Amino acid sequence: MARTPKHPSDPTDLGRNRTGTRSAPLRTKEMLENTAAVPGAMVDTSGLAMARVELSEAAPPVGTMPPPGSVKGMAKAALEALQGEKATVFLDKLGERLAFERTGVRLYEAVLAKMPAAHLGKGSLSPDRVRRFRDEEQAHFRTVREAIEKLGGDPTALTPSADLAGVQATGLVSVVTDPRTTLTQCLDALLTAELADNDGWKLLIAMAEAMGQEDLASRFSRALAEEDQHLVSIRRWIAERLEGQLGAKLPAPEFGVPPPA
């Protein structure tokens, strides 16, 4: 099949973008004059605020936690862990991480699909590195799934936080799968995902330690160490690509990393 010719424009090229007011100065002047002619009035929004409070108080939750799938054969430790409200809070966050890691695999897959059409140029970004990070996200998914099973939960169930994590990630998936987005723009989306993922693992480690699940905390710490590497690498990839597009070196390729004390 014949390939479609590469589009000649880059997103940073000058084009027909007319979203700014300076593209229509006469209309802008007219708008400002009309706005100035209408006296401003204070609007009482207390009624709207009260309605929001009432709706929030009366609304049902986004979802609820599923009951254990099978009590028979469940380990004593799991039974103990499932007792009480705290266990369901932990399982809910485990479900959230499970959903996020699944999305992480899809994000890396989408970036891999972008790479043949992109100019990689000089730098440390390579398909092999992206594949390795995708595989590590998949391994993290298995780690969380096994943790949920150990605690007697059902890893196929969609917990409330998992549901919300899926909704939050919708925008990121849209960015990386849009044929119009560049590889650099997709790396920006990956960076957003990895920043959230990094904090998610830290929270999960703290919760595992608080619930006496030291073995899980240890396994999650190993996953976090790999996530740290993902974060550092993606920051560098973005910096390298922007340096190439900008035609100038960035003073600190590891942007976002606080300087040593």
Tell me what you see in this structure:
This protein is mostly helical. Helix content is 64%, strand content 0%. It has eight helices and no strands. Mean pLDDT is 88; it is low at 71-77.
Outline of the structure:
The chain has helices at 25-37, 46-58, 76-82, 85-114, 127-150, 160-177, 183-210, 214-246. The chain is an all-alpha fold and 261 residues long. Residues 7-16 have a biased composition (Basic and acidic residues).
Shape: flat
SS element count, helices: 8
- Flag low-confidence runs: 71-77
Strand content: under 5%
H/E element order = HHHHHHHH
Rg, Cα atoms, Å:
24 Å
Q: Please outline the major beta sheet.
A: none
Structural category is: mainly alpha
Count all strands and give the number.
0
* Helix coverage percent: 55-70%
Terminal residue distance: 57 Å
Overall pLDDT level: 88
